[in-house]
Amino acid sequence: MRRVTLLDTMTTQSHKAVVLLSGGLDSTTTLAIAQREGFEVFGLTFQYGQRHQIEIAAARRVADHMGVSRHSVVDIDLGKFGGSALTTDIAVPKRSCVEEIGSGIPVTYVPARNTVFLALALAWAEVQSADNIFIGVNALDYSGYPDCRPEFIQAFQKMANLATKRAVEGQQIAIQAPLIERTKAEIIRRGLELGVDYGLTTSCYDPEAEGVACGRCDACLLRLRGFAENGQIDPVKYARPEGG
After folding, report:
1. pLDDT for 191-235, tens place per residue?
2. Dist CA 32 CA 28 (whole Å)
């Protein structure tokens, strides 16, 4: 039997990728980057009990508009465990400016969410013979989530290559986080260069009726600042400020 070399592994590696797609700004930009790099994309969205259910519809719009090969929406209920303002009746913090966002881990953190998401993405990637998983986490303009850090991504990739049949047989899995060291403004700039239609996306943690963004949660404030720093107007609709 011929010995398989590293070069053989590299030349036979699949050019398919699973992209975690929430319907938000970061994941949509990540999808565009994966496509620009020539990957055949399989979009994976989770309906995990989040209060901002409008992101599921946004993910479907994005997947359809950007022509992914397959888009799967998976139901899991992290709300059964509680512990987050995104899955229970805990109030989502509202602020008047980005500077009010603290340095601690906020109540919008969903326990182990990215670990769960990546584990399921890993299973689907192995079935699809995809050797790359893209996730739109960011370690600069983010809300202090521990599962958005480079150390987490590196650790998960190491685990993934110990845990799967495909990896053990020589096809290594790469966890791609192309936005992890970019500011929100840089992410938006790159997306605009790639022709991303941000009007299809949603970022708000606590949207009002008909999906109107609140404009005061951490996600909205970071997004609005990113567009402003690019001299752009965010195309999504926001609620009028109190008294406005």
Report:
1. 999 999 999 999 999 998 788 999 999 999 999 999 999 999 999
2. 6
Dihedral over alpha carbons 101, 102, 103, 107 (to 10 degrees) = -90
- Rounded percentage of the chain residues whose pLDDT exceeds 90: 82
135 touches 118 (CB < 8 A): yes
CA neighbor of 130 nearest in space, from 75, 179, 175: 175
Residue 112 near residue 229, CB atoms below 8 Å: no
What's the CA gap between 184 and 25, in Å, rounded?
9
pTM passes above 0.85:
yes
Topology of domain 6-229 in CATH is Rossmann fold (3.40.50)
By C-alpha distance, which of 228, 129, 126 is closest to 185? 228
Residue ranges per structural domain of the chain: 6-229
| Closest C-alpha among 214, 235, 203 to residue 58 | 203
Per residue in 36-56, pLDDT (tens digit) is 999 999 999 999 999 878 999
